[in-house]
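Researcher: For the annotation table, I need structure tokens for DUF2490 domain-containing protein. Please keep the output clean. Sequence:
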Amino acid sequence: MVKKIVFSLLAIGYTAQLSAQQTGEDEWGAWYMYFGTNKIAERFSIHTEAQFRFYETASNFNQMLLRTGLNYHIDKNAIATMGYGYITTDGTFEEFPNETNSKEHRIFQQFILKNKVWEFLFEHRYRLEQRFLDFGNRTDTQHRGRYRIQMTLPLTDTFFLNFYDELFINLQDDLFGQNRLYGALGIHVTSNSSVQVGYLRNQFANAVFDRVQIGIFYNPDLRGVFKKKGATN
């Protein structure tokens, strides 16, 4: 029985490896990320974000994403956001020799709901995106919806686990866009900052990417700064 189990596990691993080789996805890439929620009033904050994505852990640049937005905090468990993103993409890697570079201006609308079940903290994120793409020799406008369910489990006052699954739905052409499955260990550095180190499985219709993710989260309260500026004016 033990031999059968071991053989089955080896067979599954070998099949997965062959599948990855068939799509050219035998490189571990990396995403280096910063996220900020900068509180400027009782119900308003500014979202700031920067991501640098690589086909390999420290080389072969793939994508830069810069995103910002205005958050309206309906209450502590509900946030509405309107925002903008700028994305540059280099699609020319080994398995995509015919791809071209692109630039994208993106507008998005987002709604987040939070709830707690026992010790588990859940977050549901709903997002609509309007994407204006420039491929150099042509332009395109695309629309899509995204839904992410995230679960955070505190381990101690310092350490926590974070998991999410996010589905991308195209609102034109093929319905399925991609699915992102993520798991990470998080560390609270201070009361308003943390670091996460994790793994992302990014699945498209015809390719799967394995990505290491390192994320820095910093959420300062800037209300005092804005009050001082208002008083001096």
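Researcher: And a one-line annotation?
Model: The two ends are 78 Å apart (CA to CA).
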